[in-house]
C-alpha cells in the first residue's frame, strides 16, 4: 500500500511537469473584449478547481506520510492523550515500550490518579504512584476489607487519601467518611454486606456529589446520610432490601439524568406499590437514561402505565415480560419510532426515535415462526425495520407498516423435517400492496447453524417474483436491492441483467445487520475498568520505574 502511494505521487509529479511546456505564456498585448473577459473568468474557475484537487492529493499524501511515523516519535502530549483512553494497567505496560513512551507516561500526572488498591496492593508502588500524580484529585478503588488501615502504610493515612478523592468505589461503610472533608467527592460507590451501611449517628457533607451507586446486599436503608439533592446519576443494586425510601426520594432529585435499578433475578415478585406514584414518574423530564434490570412484573406494569418519557429519554428494560401485550403501547405511542432493530434469537428489540432509543430484552422463547411485532400501536410511523436473525415476518405481519421505506432481514432455509414459513410468505404481492413506499430491500441468506441439510430456499425465484409484482403494480422499477448470499452466491449471476433492469440498483455484497443496531448509551462505570488477569502487570515488578537501562534510546 505504501509503495502504491509513493508511485502515485511520482506519477502525478511527472504528469504536472509534462504540462509545463504547453502552459508557458506567450508575450502578447491583451485588448479588451468580451471574449477575453469571459475567458479570464473561466481560467479563474479552472485555477480554483486545480488548486482544490492538488490540495486534496497533497493532504492525502501527507496523511499517509504521517502514518509512517513510528509511534515512538510521536510528541509526548499526543502519546499522553492516547494513553489517557486506557486503564492504569495500560499506562504501566506503555511505560516499558520505549524511552519516549516511558517519559510521556511518567511525566503525565493525570495518568496516575487512579489508585486501585485492590488490584495493586503493593505499598511501594502506591507511594510511587502518589508521587507521580502530584496534588491531583484521586480516583480511589478500595479493597473489600473492613479496616482500611490494615492495607495501608502508617505513613499513608487513609483519611488523607479519602479527602483527596473525587471518586471512591467499594466503600463498605459511610462511617469511614466521618470527620473527613468530602467537598471534592463527585462519585461514590457504596458496597455492603452489613446492616451498618449508613450509621444513623453520622451525616457527611457532600456538596459536589453528582454520581451515586448503592449495592445493597442485606441492609435496610432507613435514611440518607449524604447529600443527594444534586445527583445526576443514581444506580441501585437491590438484593434483599426494600428500596421504597430511595425511590421516594426521586421526587427530590430534579437534576437526575441517569437511573439504573437492578433487582435480584430470583427475588420475590412483589414491590411496595406506593413508591410508584404518578408524581414521581412524571416530574423527571430531565431523565436521559433509565435502566431497569430484572424488574418485578407488577413494578414494571405500573411503571410503564404511569411513566411519561420525554423525546430525549433512553430506556432499557431487561427482561420485559410484557413485550407481547399492549402495555408497551402506553409507553411509546407518544414518541414516533422511525427504526426498529430486532434479533428474535437474542430476544433483543431496539426502537430508534431519532433523539432517543428504547432497548427491550424479552424472555427467551424458541420458535420457528415470527412471533409478531412487539408493539403495533407505537409503530405507525416506522420507516425502517432490521431483523438480524430468526424467522422473518410475513407480509401479513408487515401490512400495518404503511410508511415503511427500508426492509432488511435475514433468512435461513428450514432444516430437513422442520416446518417453517418459506421466503415467499415475506416477499410477495401482498407486501407490494401493503408497503407502497418501500424503496430499499436488504436480504441476508445464510445456512442454518444446526445442520448442513436444509430445504431449498427458492430465493432467486422469490426475489424476481417480488420485483416483477412491484413493476406491474406501480409501473415503475423498484429502488435498491442488496443481497448477501452465504448459501449459494453463484446462482444470481445468470439473472444479473434482468435484476438490474427492474431495479434502480442491484448489488451482491456482504451485509452485516448486527452492526446496524441503533447505538444505546452505556451506563456510567463506577468501578475502574481492568484488563483480564492474564494481561495484568503485577505492581511489584514496577519498583525501578526510573531505570532506563535496556530501553530504546
UniProtKB/TrEMBL annotation:
Membrane-traversing stretches: none
Residues of the F-box domain: 68-115
Domain of life according to the entry: Eukaryota
Listed name of the protein: F-box domain-containing protein
Species of the source: Serendipita indica (strain DSM 11827) (Root endophyte fungus)
Lineage: Eukaryota, Fungi, Dikarya, Basidiomycota, Agaricomycotina
